[in-house]
TrEMBL record:
GO terms for molecular function: hydrolase activity, acting on glycosyl bonds. This is G/U mismatch-specific DNA glycosylase. It comes from Streptomyces halstedii. It comes from the Bacteria. Transmembrane segments: none annotated. Residues 15-170 form the Uracil-DNA glycosylase-like domain. It holds the Pfam family UDG. It is an enzyme of class 3 (hydrolase).
């Protein structure tokens, strides 16, 4: 992709991959320019979402971003706190995060997923005013869904490896499975 194509994707909105009654609705911070240009969530080559999703047991094989619609068959979906594509998450204002949190709560109430998994604890803190939130299950629910804050799979998040992220995502998967079987 050329730099011009990427810049042309700035502020594009990428449609959600979502439907009613999902097991987990994964919520990214906002689309990257690569995602804005391709229309596929977590499309930047350095993003580790797709391998982590597979290694954690959510999908039977590693999906490519272009196969994102297959998630619905597994009871999974994708949305974002802020809908517009940017080069970096720090281009978003705190008010955009808060407004995105309000819109997300309404979307979750409408779709009714069992769990909302926010992929990026800092985005979760800002969008929902939960300054002390940590990675893992949260005390609150949003729109009727239980909430889990997950590590951001961006390649810029060097504190988490693919293996440690997959372990945390697998903790969520185990909680979902337990809730569905119990």
């Amino acid at each position: 992709m050329t730099p011009e194509e990427l810049q042309a994707a700035r502020d594009h909105v990428v449609p959600d991959v979502a439907t009613g009654g999902l097991r987990v609705l994964f919520c990214g911070i906002n689309p990257s320019l690569t995602t804005g240009a391709t229309g596929h969530h977590f499309a930047h080559p350095g993003n580790r979402f797709w391998p982590v999703l597979h290694l954690s047991g959510f999908t039977p094989r590693r999906l490519r971003p272009a196969e994102q619609d297959e998630l619905l068959g597994y009871g999974l979906g994708i949305t974002n706190v802020v809908a517009r594509a940017t080069a970096r998450a720090d281009e978003l204002s705190a008010e955009e995060y808060r407004e995105g949190g309000r819109k997300l709560a309404a979307k979750v109430a409408e779709l009714g997923p069992l769990w909302l998994a926010v992929v990026g604890v800092t985005a979760y803190r800002t969008a929902f005013g939960e300054r002390r939130a940590r990675i893992g299950p949260q005390e609150r629910s949003i729109g009727g869904a239980r909430v889990w804050a997950l590590p951001n799979p961006s390649g810029l998040n060097a504190h988490w490896t693919v293996a440690t992220m997959a372990d945390e995502y697998a903790r969520l998967r185990a909680a979902v499975d337990q809730e569905l079987s119990g």
